[in-house]
Amino acid sequence: MATATATAKNAHAVGAQRAQVSQLTPYDWVALDKRGKRMKGTMPAKNASLVKAELRRQGMNPQTVREKSKPLFGSTGSTVKPGDVAIFSRQIATMMASGVPMIQAFDIIADGQKNPRFKNILNDVKQGIEGGQSLHESLGRYPVQFDELYRNLVRAGESAGVLDTVLDTVATYKERTEAIKKKIKKALFYPMMVLAVVFIVILIMLLYVVPVFAQTFQSAGASLPAPTQFLVDASHFMQSCWYIVIGVIGGGIAAVVIGKKRSPKFAHFMDRVALKMPVMGDIVRNSAVARFSRTLGVTFRAGVPLVEAMDAVAGATGSVVYGDAVKQMRDDIAVGHQLQLAMRQTGLFPNMVVQMTSIGEESGALDNMLFKVAEFYEEEVSNAVDTLSTLLEPIIMVVLGTIVGGMVIALYLPIFKLAGTF
After folding, report:
1. What is residue 359's predicted lDDT score, i.e. its pLDDT?
2. How sure is the predictor about 18, in pLDDT bands with cuts at 50, 70 and 90?
3. What residue numbers bound the domain in which 148 lies?
4. What is the pLDDT averaged over residues 107-114?
5. In the listed set 175, 209, 239, which residue is the last one of a domain according to the structure?
6. Region of residue 33 (phi > 0: left; psi between -120 and 50: alpha; otherwise: beta)
7. Do 223 and 360 lie in a common domain?
8. Per-residue DSSP letters for 220-288?
9. CA 292, CA 270: separation in Å to the nearest integer?
């Protein structure tokens, strides 16, 4: 009973401390030190007078103290990107490995954050640790930024007393996965931009250029060739129903995006289609295998139980098809099957991956084998993305030239026809 009362008092004290900290207002200050050198910074306090008093106590002469201005579009700042979490993981791992206390490491990293939202998150996590929570418990208040896999790895590191080593492994994992994502996005950005430019060019020609030629042809009374007539009819349709065309395209894209989020069957179907596409299918497949191998290797090395880790691994593959397969593997492992046998039953993993996993299980070096598999398929993804970029550039140029050139030729066909009559 006494222990419960003490726990309740501690929790109340921690809550009061957090409430008191949250009520402080940040102030920007400018002061002169003992040498007359101009110094500036930010200090949280209840009012400006307390900031001035603290500056004088530190031997500085305050010049200006004003409340820190809030961002124009709200105080939350920009969203926290996975890349921000990857950089934070590397920083905290490096500092802890160098012997910097965790609280001090959080202070240093938060002070250097340019993203105000992530800075607030790090400060709140630090306050949770100061209040007696473990790191994984404090991170648990932000499940979007620090997912289940991240928290499980941190918890395993804390339990085994090797948190700095686990954080270093997590940092490497985050950096590798983000590097793959960025490379794939970079490869897809160019063709998507070119297609958008093609669509805009076609729209401008149908709305503004073709009508001018159509009026000229009509006044000349010439019969139009089939390609030109088709182009004129398309221009008339676009002028009267342009909002329908844009609505159909926008609605189609929105339907696919929303359908993938809300319908598991539709998401599974879209992933199946993506896996069967030439070149792109290999990138999706190899990327999923690389993420699976690296994530499972990290969790296994951190000491997370295999069955428990599979749920987090399923969400890290980046593919609904492979995610469902990993959940099926989890059920097989739970009833006593070996990992390599469960992988073979899915029919989705290459034979080399299954064989190396089998060797890793038998030799007791499963994590090392999984890391080797991950490195191999990450290199495969990198090469495939480079190949895709090389293939797409000439194809896009040909498509762009064919569409725009075909429209120009169709517009000039009646002129050539009229010129041939004289």
Report:
1. 92
2. very low
3. 82-175
4. 86
5. 175
6. beta
7. yes
8. HTPPPPHHHHHHHHHHHHHHHHHHHHHHHHHHHHHHHHHHHHH-HHHHHHHHHHHHHSTTHHHHHHHHH
9. 20
